Amino acid sequence: MTTGRLRILLLAHSFNGLTQRLWCELADRGHDVSLELDIADDVTREAVRLHAPDLVVAPFLKRAVPEDVWRRVPCWIVHPGIPGDRGPAALDWAIREGRREWGVTVLEASADFDAGDVWASASFAMREATKASLYRDETTNGAVSAVLAALDRRAAGARPTPLAALDPATAGTWHPAPKQVERRIDWERDDTDMVLAKLRAADSTPGVLDAVLDEPCHLYDANRGPAQTALRAVGPVASVRPGAWLGRRGTALLRATRDGSVWIGHARRAQSESFKLPATLACPAAATLPGLPAFGAHDRAEIRYREHGDVGHLAFEFHNGAMSAAQCERLCAALDAAAARATRVLVLEGGRDFWSNGVHLNVIEAADSAADESWRNIQAIDDVAERILRLDGKLTVAALRGNAGAGGAFLALAADRVWARPGVVLNFHYRNMGNLYGSEYWTYTLPRRVGLVEARRLIDERPPLLGRQAESRGLVDATFGATAGDFEAEVAARAQALATAADHAAQLDAKRERREEDERAKPLAQYRAEELAQMRRSFYGFDTSYHVARHRFVHRAPHSWTPRHLARHRAGAT
Ligand code: COA
User: Fold this and answer.
1) Which of 140, 301, 498, 537 makes the best surface tag, with the fewest CB within 10 Å?
2) What mean pLDDT is reported for the chain?
């Protein structure tokens, strides 16, 4: 038995959020972690030979681990289901079946899928949310707990428990991936709860195949809409026949259900080569639908503002954390309105799943000129960053409930304080997107926090960082909150304390003085111009790496190799 520091190979279909989180958690505990993306069996065999792992952990696989690998090296599969649940669509079924509790299980790889002996499991309460949201939060936290518990068991010399020894009522039930025909919405019969459950169980992938007007589309990003009574009170809504498309607001479309309505935020045309887009962009014919007013303050508002005492809270719940030029423009207007309020602190809450992931690559991809739209989007997100940097009438806090990446992570650094949940994953770098240089004033905000040497290192090495690792590197000021709810409550309390602190005025003065000093040393406009000069080359220059990388990212193209900085076992290998 090997105890202490282990050589661990992560084997995954992609370096998704859960895999990044495990990478960070295991490395943080001193294990020697490397990654191989599951591209071909021989490549996996080669990775095992090169890394010589004590253990292979598979957090996110779409294929079986080769038998000769799991027979030679212990291999743990992280299954997003309770012990005994088996199959490739565990969370889909849990949502569809209205489970109140669900879980994550770590089991030994074996000849049958998800049928190996169980090392550990963790459970969590289900929430009314999409599959992707449950995966990014509760499932990811559960996976970390279960893998750590399994490591403890292994270190203590324990053996895993055979599935057959578990409760026979639940043990070993195989659930196949639901077919589209099983996911289909019957608009005449399904009530709003059922419609939402079907859509959420298929979000973010594969979506529910349906149609927007007459265009076959997969539907995503569903939210409960207004009740029938509210709909009838609105003039332009002619028919509330179940399934009827009622109107649009922003880029979302409202559709009647048997007993209410649902907003559909995103859609993907059913034809090949299409990708997910805001619904009105995916289906331009929807422009003929009537524009609808907000049916109440919280009726699918992407940007929400509220106040508690001296503190304003601005949430921007952009799907997948992607911020198009139009969304950035709306956020600028919301920031201006929040700045004008008589509050002392402004908390920037971002979204629940992602605080922000930077410019909207899908909207850019869909534009007539991707270069022009990239240029427009980067200017618009820079405007957001600039507003935060120049906001001198109050203290600002970026409160990271969810992950942030690329321009979205740097946007957070524009705030005076950055608070985060300890387990969020932050990617402070741009290079993965076709060697982008990046903007959002990162050349000002990053060295200001960590110094030039460390800034260069972060950008070059591209490590995913946990919130608590980012804190120890000075990128984040404080981490707290085991759950999203705990985090939100503590953010509110800390922000209130900041607002009522005896030295609040002194802190504001110091902030203004520092900004003025920094401006004299090098104006913000100069940082922006220098960054954008680099970005312009990526958008319009002879090297098209960014356009190629974005195209592959948006179309979810499979990986053809593992990046060298993650496949650490390949360092020096030919
Ligand atoms: N624009 C559009 N969509 C984006 C996006 C962006 N900037 N960033 C993430 N997404 C989408 C993904 O396409 C995916 O969509 P889907 O699940 O609906 O299919 C979803 O958000 C989750 O992304 P995923 O990559 O699966 O999440 P992750 O947690 O595994 O990885 C990142 C997070 C930030 C590392 C990764 O999403 C990323 O590299 N994003 C691009 C960031 C970027 O380069 N921005 C532009 C420069 S500012």
Assistant:
1) 537
2) 95
